[in-house]
Amino acid sequence: MALDKQTVAKVAHLARIRVEEDELETLAGELNSIIGWVEQLGEVDTDGVEPMTSAVDLKLRLREDEITDGDYPDRVLKNGPSTEMQFYVVPKVVE
Amino acid sequence: MSDMLTLSLAEARDKLRAKEITAVELTDAYLSAMEQTRDLNCYITETPERARAMAKASDERIAAGKAGAMEGLPIGMKDLFCTEGVQSTAGSHILEGFTPTYESTVSQNLWDAGAVMLGKTNLDEFAMGSSNLTSYYGGVKNPYTKQGSNQSLVPGGSSGGSAAAVAAHAAIAATGTDTGGSIRQPAAFAGLVGFKPTYGRCSRWGIVAFASSLDQAGPMTRTVRDSAIMLGAMAGFDKKDSTSLDMPVPDFEAALTGDIRGMKIGIPKEYRVDNMPGEIEALWKQGIEWMKDAGAEVVDVTLPHTKYALPTYYIVAPAEASSNLARYDGVRYGLRVEGKDLNEMYENTRAAGFGAEVRRRVLIGTYVLSAGYYDAYYLKAQKVRTKIAQDFKNAWGQCDLLLTPTTPSAAFAMDEKIDDPVAMYLNDVFTVPASLAGLPGISVPAGVDKDGLPLGLQLIGPAMGEEAVLRAAGVLEQAAGFSAKPALMAA
Questions:
Q1: What does the pLDDT look like over B245-258, one tens digit per residue?
Q2: DSSP state of B104
Q3: Which whole number is the average pLDDT over B48-70?
Q4: Which of residues 428-457 of B touch A (CB under 8 A)?
């Protein structure tokens, strides 16, 4: 499955990373060499095999649905590049 | 004062408790060592004032008879662990200036045990790399060089700053994290002991996430005993990490009995890869002999899906990374580059904030998770991962531990391999399988190559098998008697 420049541009947009037009060719080449290499997994017979979703055999724990932390907005917002009145400030989203 | 730097963590601990040295003296010796070795670029952020204050508090606790397991021992903290009030960058431009308002569980456990923080060590950006060359804060030099050469070599990665610091005596020990080999490979390149425990043994809470189903913290130390002591202080159940193992932490140091008689050591034939240097093959054979001499039984085993581990990893890890790194959006922390609207602000911020390797992996991860490709790549890789884990389960029917080389080569030059991402990925061929299966693996310095560069052997155990791994590692260390010293070392 070869990634063309158009696919790379689409994936970059999905990942919200700006990629300049003149970088697409090189990037497509690099990504193709990686994708081409991982495609050898097609050789493995995985019929009836369950996908592995956890590195160790353990069940996710349940906990009481209660508030155990929080109530310190200043600490939460401390590293925000732009904050005001206990909110993060972003460019205008709705007209 | 300088001979303090040659003490192992265990020796320094004993001398501190016996009041033969003080934590302040030891910390001052290391702070001066950090200055001497600054050219290696081991640390992104040095924290000398904090170190002195922590050392003073340690001396007070020792005087009061309240010494913890790591009391007064000055360590480097990989800059992937969030540390309250101290910049935590993950080696990335996008997190430059990020100063957490909380402390990771593992670092908190170490401070609670009395450890002293010297600073935050350099690493590949977001722990993605095997050379430390992808760090936004510059590459790290390996304190080892080839005999008769002054060419700079990489310390391995991603925990390259930690490895170089411990080897150059700019820290008595350091934390690492390992997703596909990031503790074990740099340990092998720098003549150290690097231990990735069972997935879940150390809490992931407060560690900047790379691939959450693989990430695991562990110690990087000069000896196996040091590794046991430090892992004991790092590990433990944490309800803030949903995959933390809810099990008691054994006394790892007590596992170092030196007795492996009757233990069965498996040798996986698939780890004989093409183009592996003869001296690594020879070292592996030597390791097998050492195990036999110590009374272990050596058996041949097969892990038939080994060759698929790397390609599986390079789907699973980037997929998880693309999801984890979605949080770097210019809104909550770190870098922001404005744009004409929200989307453009995201795209500009992430273009400026991520380096080439991180961008590559986020794009690969986004691609393999995208509609139409999910089943062909991501789901397929998860199924192959099941088969890789099953190979190990089958092997445990025949043996207690596995012995393999840690890396297919010794440390390489800083200007090699950077152009070909797949060639770089091959560094982790022997470490990735145990990561995918969540198993404990340790690298022990076992010899040197023809140029005098360190080589490591790896022991892998079953889940929760840290004690057996450490016991055999102790025997291996004793037999190997590794004594090489780096060209650049503080004194």
A1: 999 999 999 999 99
A2: -
A3: 98
A4: 436-438
pLDDT above 60 (res B162): yes
Q: Token pair for residue B334?
A: 């770190």
- Tokens read off for A31: 């990504």
Question: What are the catalytic residues of B?
Answer: 78, 158, 182
B344-to-B331, B337, B372 alpha-carbon distances in Å: 13, 9, 26
Query: Is the CB of residue B256 less than 8 Å from the CB of residue B225?
Result: yes
Inspect the interface and report whether the beta carbons of A8 and B363 lie closer than 8 Å. yes
A95 touches chain B (CB under 8 A): no
What residues of chain A lie within 8 A of the CB of B379, using their CB?
A: 51
Model pTM greater than 0.80? yes
* Any A CB within 8 A of B117 CB: no
Q: Averaged over B339-366, what is the pLDDT?
A: 97
Asked if pLDDT for residue B1 goes beyond 70, the answer is: no
Distance from CA of B388 to the nearest CA of A (A): 10
Burial class (CB in 10 A: 0-12, 13-18, 19+), B63: exposed
Contact B342 A93 (CB under 8 A): yes
Give which of B95, B380, B390 to mutate to test A binding, by max A Cβ within 10 Å. Answer: B380
CA dist., res. B77 & res. B73, Å (int)? 12
CA A71 to chain centre: 28
Q: Provide φ and ψ at B81, rounded to 5°.
A: -90, 130
B301: which DSSP letter? E
Alpha helices in chain A (DSSP H): 5-14, 24-38, 73-77
Q: At residue B66, does pLDDT exceed 60?
A: yes
ipTM of the complex: 0.95
Distance, in Å, from the CA atom of B49 to the CA atom of B121, rounded to the nearest integer, reads 16
- Contact present, B187 and B157 (Cβ < 8 Å): no
Q: Is B184 helix (H, G, I), strand (E, B) or coil?
A: helix
Chain B hits for A42, CB-CB cut-off 8 Å, are: 380
